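User: I want to check something. If I give you two sequences, will you return the structure for each one separately, not as a complex?

Assistant: Yes, each is folded on its own. Here is the first sequence with its structure:
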Amino acid sequence: MPAAWSTPRTWVTGEALLASDLNAQVRDNLSFLKEPPFSLRQMNEAADYVTSATSMVEVDGSNSELSLTISTGGGNVLVVFFGTFSHSALYGRCQMDVDVDGVMLGGDNGLIQSRSPIAGVSGAFSVSFAAVKTGLAPGSHTFKLMWATSGASLTLYAGAGTSGFDHHPQFWVREI
């Protein structure tokens, strides 16, 4: 990861340009813009994720594989998720959110909600979102993928080789 962004200095007429100044002011800042802090988890699990939790819980429980940490320069972070789900009940609800340093990004009922059009695997549906977390202070921040259901059983296909549903969801965060 490149060094953190540094506020460009104001040059004075006639001031000598040194290689170290130009490296810090131009090269390092351009490198930071090209490669900001980023973390990605593309799922390829031994088993799909399943929950019956009716309040928000971490998708992968205590495994923390879907808990992404980045060190930011402060400001805004883009959070993205996409995946394929099924629900054991007709019109079963899937709610998704992201816990950012202990606070839910969506609040209330989460960032997004979807319902199963048909009960079981034949009613698989996609859920995706892109959200921006604003106003983060410089430093380390943790983003945890959270979910809840209306009851019964909600499945997130996670590259486990499920016939016809060997999908590989992604969860990622990037400073913007």
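And separately, the second sequence with its own structure:
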Amino acid sequence: MRKENILVGVLVVLALGGIYQYNRPAPDLGSQVTNVNIEALATENKIPQNLSMAAPEDISWNDYTPGMALAGKEGKPIFLYFHASWCGYCVKLKKETFTDDRVKAYLNDHFVSIGVDTDKREKLARQWGVRGLPTLWFLEADGTKINNLPGFVDADQLLTILQYIHTQSYNTMNFQEYVQQKKS
């Protein structure tokens, strides 16, 4: 009977540990991306802030279905952003990355941006395999998946990734090669 009590105690501790791990804030994934060819840029590879003279409006967010149709019509790649109001890194992404004038201008000029609130569109988030927030997907104009990026990414990193996707460099080189080519 004593062994059973110990086993139950161990199982309770493991369950509590799992609950804690599931509910704690996500780590900053901006510098460590798994299963994708996109990695963080070195600090010395920053792009100047004053890339454009006029400050753009906010990002032109679209709902999912109309946004997918608009991308096909305009032939623009898709930036698909899964988020929730309770997600700390989603709030950080919104306040720090999506307020950068260069990011706003690049998204508005070269992408159709789609925002999906996972609390309101749970089925859609499951379809896209969203396991953590924020999750960014990059798609071709016809909706073909290019790649995804889980977690927070700063403005400089996102801008480089957007340029990599927009120029379709992913067809000829991996992201690390693209970054190296930009340096030289």
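Because they were folded independently, the notes below concern the second chain alone. The chain has one domain: 2-183. The longest strand covers residues 78-83.
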